[in-house]
Design goal:
The structure is a homodimer of 375-residue chains. By secondary structure, chain A is of the alpha/beta class. The first copy, chain A, folds into 2 domains: 243 residues, Queuine tRNA-ribosyltransferase-like (TIM Barrel, Alpha-Beta Barrel), CATH 3.20.20; 95 residues, no CATH class. Helix content of chain A is 42%, strand content 18%. In chain A, the strands form 5 sheets. A 6-stranded parallel β-sheet of chain A has the order 4-14-13-12-11-10. The first copy, chain A, has a 3-stranded antiparallel β-sheet with strand order 1-2-3. In chain A, strands 7-8-9 form a 3-stranded antiparallel β-sheet. The interface between A and B is large, with 39 and 40 residues.
Chain lengths: 375, 375
Amino acid sequence: MFSFRVVKSNGKARLGVLTTPHGAIETPVFMPVGTQGTVKAILHKDLLDIGTQIILGNTYHLYLRPGIEVIRDAGGLHSFIGWQKPILTDSGGFQVFSLSKGRGDGRSKVKVKDEGVEFRDHLAGDLHFFTPERVIEIQEVFGSDIIMPLDECVEYPTTHAYAKIALERTIKWLDRSIRAKKREDQVLFGIVQGAFFEDLRIESALKTVERNLFGYAIGGLSVGEPKEVMYTMAEVVCNILPWEKPRYLMGVGMPEDIIEAVARGVDMFDCVAPTRMARTGTLFTSQGKINIRNEKYKKDYSPPDPDCDCYTCKNFTKAYLRHLFNVEEISAYILNTIHNLRFYHKLMENIREAIREDRFEEFRHSWHKVYNLQA
Amino acid sequence: MFSFRVVKSNGKARLGVLTTPHGAIETPVFMPVGTQGTVKAILHKDLLDIGTQIILGNTYHLYLRPGIEVIRDAGGLHSFIGWQKPILTDSGGFQVFSLSKGRGDGRSKVKVKDEGVEFRDHLAGDLHFFTPERVIEIQEVFGSDIIMPLDECVEYPTTHAYAKIALERTIKWLDRSIRAKKREDQVLFGIVQGAFFEDLRIESALKTVERNLFGYAIGGLSVGEPKEVMYTMAEVVCNILPWEKPRYLMGVGMPEDIIEAVARGVDMFDCVAPTRMARTGTLFTSQGKINIRNEKYKKDYSPPDPDCDCYTCKNFTKAYLRHLFNVEEISAYILNTIHNLRFYHKLMENIREAIREDRFEEFRHSWHKVYNLQA
């Protein structure tokens, strides 16, 4: 039902195929974030048009709204949202730690205990308790293809001592998650933590790999640390992870981060950047990032990216997109989102093609040269 | 370059073909409102998918933003917005009277003079002066297929005396518009005014028809008067308008209004209802209107309208659309808009088919029966 195969490699960069009950995915892959059962400002059919292979759903948000009963009675998440390709859901842990903390009304403390995490949601402020078992149970209701165990994310910066406590708790929670898991049409990844300390990343990677999971995620990065730290942590971990299993770098990232992580052996990515930035007018192009609000585009009747094959670039000009954005038309957000996600998917296609043709290093260097020159 | 032909009729209801330089339009037709160069919350390609034949642009809004220079340098409105099918633009008069009045800061007076209309815009409050000549000039820059002359809209209710003044001014402005018009790849409609008085509607219709225009619009209705008054005014005017010319009832309306106006001989319609109501969660269905926010749809896994062939109804459930709307996802507005506009276009297709098959009266009565039963 599930398999992963490394088809080819260039140094540490790998071309692979991940097979799920909802179809096969070519890796390296970028997964658009469909927080609340939809990728923001784009329809499923447009996702399919631009080459989306798998989307990510946020357990925290879906658990709160519409709630698991509505999803269960619909026959699971695929059926509820009308998306028949693969879905990966996270554990909700990251949102518990980031969104609940942000309430700032004195009731906002997240209480991490060995048993689980107690938190108040960011909406009504109701009290909830997530345990590793509960998080698996919720994702079994969803029926997502790839599920994640509850883990403890620590902030940047943090102490070595606290990072070690969180790492150990994450491993214990992983063991409970493995025991709780029942469905056989889903696979569980292990999440490597260890914050920004090489020794802890190594310890976490070794212990997680001992559990022999289908795939491995690298969590706790892209939370404010310097890029070099992120790259080093990803490298340290990838050097330990078994070659024949998929690796997923959670919450990463900018195009340059993706290329650097692929160079270190990562296969899967997710990030809100292309969708969120689309809604503030930033477009990724083959020449660097541009902001469509810029006055200089007022009469620029060329497409955002002449090298792009998306609906937006094939049919519309910067001047028109600027106008739509300035007058706050919803179509501005849709068109920008189509373009940015297509840019990401095309980047992944180019990465895969480069690996297939034994020229990933060449691609990597020329890409940085062009992109950084303009950005 | 332009022609209009009544292909068939059932009583006063007519099936026609309106040919323009950007293609032919089957009438009766509904024109989605693309206020600022885009129909709200839907992409052009989705408009084409659901059978949109022509869109309407608002001269007032486009004149303010992006401004006529940007549109001129793009090569006109079709080119600027990337829409290759026909476009009708209004004169801006209606927005001048409604939006400028609404400013409520003491500077908001609209000054109607015989020369033209002085107004402050609803954005920065800058002073502008629209004359019949200026309004034609702006629309010649746009290059819209069908253009409208500046007219004076009066409120409901109004006095017979004022309605007569406005009517006479509208005729004088029409004569100036005819003289100002230069481009031959556009046609000008005359707008019949006369408020809610049969004698004035007759006078306005007779005088407007004397000018021998390509088509005739019925303005100043759907501004708060009872439906029966609107139907009567449309009927009085249609009885005078020449059979072989297209008739356009501006700003109308609800599905039942469209059917009643077709029964009286109207060929063209525009209204913000389907798009605006989509964004507040109201969906038109073959069984009446529903609001998707309703608690009773929480676990309703059936499509909004099982008889509808749109992307939304073919792929999604009320429960999912309700969820998307509740969590304020943009895709809720897109999916609702696709459905509502498809509902309108399908209604027009059904009307045309009924006329073609000599059963319009039957269609009209059965439609009211089903729709009013549930609505």
